[in-house]
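Incident review: delayed structure delivery

Summary: a single-chain prediction request sat in the queue longer than the usual turnaround. Root cause was a stuck worker, restarted by the on-call engineer. No data loss occurred. The affected request and its eventual output are reproduced below so the record is complete for anyone auditing the incident later.

Affected input:
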Amino acid sequence: MIYLNNNTIDLRRFFATVIRYKWIYIATAVVLMTGSIYFALTREAKYTLNAVLLVENEGDTGGRLSGMGAMLGLSVPSMFGGTSLENEMVVMQSNAVYERAIKDLQLNRQYFLYKGLMNKQTLYNESPLRLVAADDIYFDTVSAGMQFKIKLKPNGTADVKVVRGFFNTLFEQNDMALPTTIKVDGMDFSLLTTKHYVKGEPMEMRIAVTNNNTAINELSKSLSIIAFDKVSDAMLLIHTDPNLQRGKDVLNTLITAYFDQRTLDKGQKASRGLDVINQQIDSAYVNLIKSESQLERFRIENNITDISTELEISLNATATLDADMMASRTQIIICDLLLKFLRSEDSKYSLLPISDDKGTQAGMSIANQYNELVIQRMKLLRSAKPDNAALTEVTASIDALRDAVIASVEQQKHNLSSSIAEQEKKYSEFTSRLGSTPRLQREYTDLSRRLQLNNQVYLFLLNKKTEYEMQQASSELPATIVDKAYCPENEASNTSSIIFPMIGIFLSLLFPSMFVLYKLWREQAIEHEYDMPLTVKHNGMPTYETTAMLRAALLAHNQSRLIPITFDDEHIDGNRQQAVTDLAKQIADTGRRIIAIDLNNIYGCSDCQLNGDLDSPKAATLGGIDLLAYDGTPSDILLNNRFKAMVASLAERYDSIMLLCKNDNEAIDALTNITDDETPTVVMVERGQAKRSRVAQIAKAHIGIKFMFWIY
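Output delivered after worker restart:
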C-alpha cells in the first residue's frame, strides 16, 4: 500500500500557479503601491520638538541629625532629599502629569480639516469651529469616544453627523445654522465659530472626542523622555506633533504640570511628617512635665536646697560609670520609642530612623534593608496602581521584615540592659564605700538625670518641627528649565512615511499568495498532486499513450494473470470505458490473450452476462477482446467459490484476466478471495474529479492490499 501525506504541497505546484495567476500579482502591486505612495505623500508631516530640564540633587542633611532624632523616625531629608534623574523621569511620565496637560490643552478633542481622500490637516488654535459641552467635565469622564463629521456649505450652513465606531450613528442633521447646539448621549454640545471661521467657505471637518485614557496613550506614543547625556543630571523631552504651536504648548504644559505635581507631593509629605512630629512632641511634653513635677515634689518633701560639697567629692569616683549608664539608659529609651514607632499602625509604612551613634548603628544593618524597601514602596506609589504586582510584593516584604527589625531592636535593648547590669555591679562596688552617702542624694540624682533626658528629647523635637515647617514653606523645585520647547530643525519631517510603500510591497505579495494557496486548496484534484506516488498519471497526453505506461507497469510488476481494476463512479462513463478498452487492446497487442469480466456491467452487455450460470458463462467479443458481464452485487460474486473456480479455469485459456468493479469497501475486501498479496489492484480515478483525500481514503482503508493508482 502506498503512503499519502495529505498535508504536503509541492512547491512546483505553487510556483506553477503563481505563473498562471501572475496578472493578479501585477494588478495587486499596482493598486497597493499606488495607494501606499499616495498615502505616504499625503500623510501629514510632523515637527520634532525638544525641551531640557536639569534635575537638582538635594544635599543629604542626614549628617546633621543626632542619634536620638534618627531613632525617633523624624529624618526629614530621607523624605525630601535624594532626588535622582530616574525618579524625576518617572514623575514626568505619570498619569497625573499627562492628565493635567490633556485637561489644560483639551487634547481629548482633536480637530481635523479634510482636503481630499486620506489627506487631513491637524487644526489647533486656527480651527474655525470649537466644540464645547454644557458640562465640561464630560470630556474628562467620557468612556467611549465619538466623532463629529461636519461639512460646511457655501450657503453658510453645515451638515452635522455624530458617529461612534463605524456603524453607530448618534446624531445626523443637514443644513444647520452655525453656531448650533445638538444633544448627544444626554449631553448638550455646542459648535461655536471662532475668528478663523469664514461664512460660505466650503470645507469638511472632523472633531474626534476621545476619553482621557486614549488621549494619554496617544500622548505617550508621541513623547519620549530620556537622559540628556551620561555625565549630567538633565532630562530631554522629545515630542512629535503635526502642529508646531500645539507641540510647543504640549511640552511647556507638561513641564508646568510636572512642577505642580512635585510641589503637591512635597506639601503632602511635609504635612504627614508634621502630624507624626506633633504626636511625638505631645508625648515628650507630658514626660517632661512629669519629670519636673517629681523633682519639685522631692525637693519640697525632703527640704533639699543644695548639695553638700562632701557628697560631690564622694560622687566624683562614680562619675565615669554614671555617665556610661546614663548613655545606655538613653539608648534603651530610644529603643522603646523605636519599638513603639514600629508597632504603631500610623507609622506602619514610614521610614525607620537609624541612629548615627556608631555603637547603635552597628547592630541595625537590617534596619537599612527595611528603609530601602520603604523608599522603594514610596517610589512605586508615585506611579503604580494599588493592585500593582511590584507594589504588592514590596509591601509584603516590608511586613515580613518589620518583625525582624523589632526582634533586632529588642535584642539591642537586651544587650544594653545587660551592659547596664554590669555597670551597676561596678557602680555598687564604688558606692559601697560611700556608706555615709545620704539616700536622698541618690534619688535626687536619678530624678535630675530623667529631667535632663526628657528636656533633650523635647528640644530636639521642637527643632525638627521647625525643619519640617521650613521644608513645607520652601519654594525650591527639584528641577530647573534649561530650554523651553523648541524645534531644532524648524520644519516638519515626513521621513516615517517610507514605511507605507514597504507595507504596500509586502501586502502586494501577501494577498495574491493567499489567493494562490486558496486555489491550491480548492484544486485538490489528483492530477495536480506532484508528490503522490502514482503509477500512471495523465499529463495532457491521449488516453492511449497513458495506458501504455500502465501496461508496462502491470507487465513488469504483476506476475499474476489476474488484473483487478476498480473505478470510483457507479454511472456509466464513456471516458472510463474507453480507458479500459485501450488498456485491454494494448495488452492484447503484446500477443497475450485477454478476457474482461465486467462485474458492474459498465458496458451494458446483455448477451454475455454470467447471471447464475458460472459453469458455462456466455462470452462476447468487444473489439477483439472477450467480455463477460455480471449484473448484481460484485462482492457477492467475488466471494462465490464457483466464481473463484471459474476464474481459475479461465487462467488456463487466457494470459490476462481483467476484473472490473466499483471500488467500494465490500468489493475491494472481497477481491482478496481470488487474489494474493502480490497481485496489485488498479484504482481508476478520473482527472479533475477524484480528490486527493479520496485516494488517501482508499489506500488507508485497506491495509495489506497492494494498490496501483491510475489517473485517466
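Verification: Residues 10-43+494-523 form one domain.
Action items: add queue-age alerting; document worker restart procedure.
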